[in-house]
Amino acid sequence: MNKLFTLMVLVALVGCAEKKPLTAEEQWKGYCTSVGNAANTIMYDRQNAIDKAAALEHASKIEDETTKTFILDIIEQVYAFPLAEITVDPQASRDQFKQKITEKCIATPHDKMPDYKPF
């Protein structure tokens, strides 16, 4: 019983320990994951007949310039695909595009972290 109590206290202390702050690279990777998730959603919208004008209108509300640049580029790329091509295997198209955008974002040089809400 005493060992169980000690184990529970130890687990509680480990669970409450402070997390180390993220490095700049880890923060950028997290940001790029969000950009990839946004690319997935934009591709999904395209596959479900959301027109480009509506996507651009929504993107115009983004305040952070870095994020806005990425999103506008994603919209241009997504709407350049023929609809028939991206609806053959919709999930695979979204996954492949999301991966491509995430990798492109990670490889993009940056000076500061954008102000964004995780997507």
Describe the structure in your own words.
The protein has 119 residues and is an all-alpha fold. It has a domain at 27-107. Helix content is 72%, strand content 0%. The protein has six helices and no strands. Helix 2 (24-47) runs parallel beside helix 4, helix 2 (24-47) packs antiparallel against helix 6 (90-107) and helix 3 (52-59) packs antiparallel against helix 4 (65-80). The longest helix is centred in the first third of the chain and has 24 residues, at 24-47. It is globular, with a radius of gyration of 20 Å. The protein starts with a helix and ends in a 12-residue tail after the last helix.
What can be said about this structure in brief?
72% of the residues lie in helices and 0% in strands.
Main features:
globular; 119 residues; Lipoprotein; single chain; mainly alpha
What is the gyration radius calculated from CA atoms? 20 Å
Shape descriptor reads globular
User: How many helical stretches?
Assistant: 6
Classify the beta-strand content into a percent band: under 5%
Q: What is the residue-mean pLDDT, rounded to a whole number? A: 87
Please mark out the parts with pLDDT under 50 across 5 or more consecutive residues, or reply none: none
- Termini Cα gap: 45 Å
Order of helices and strands: HHHHHH
Overall helicity: over 70%
Structural class, from helix and strand content? Answer: mainly alpha
**Biggest sheet character:** none
Q: How many E strands?
A: 0
Protein name: Lipoprotein
Organism: Acinetobacter terrae
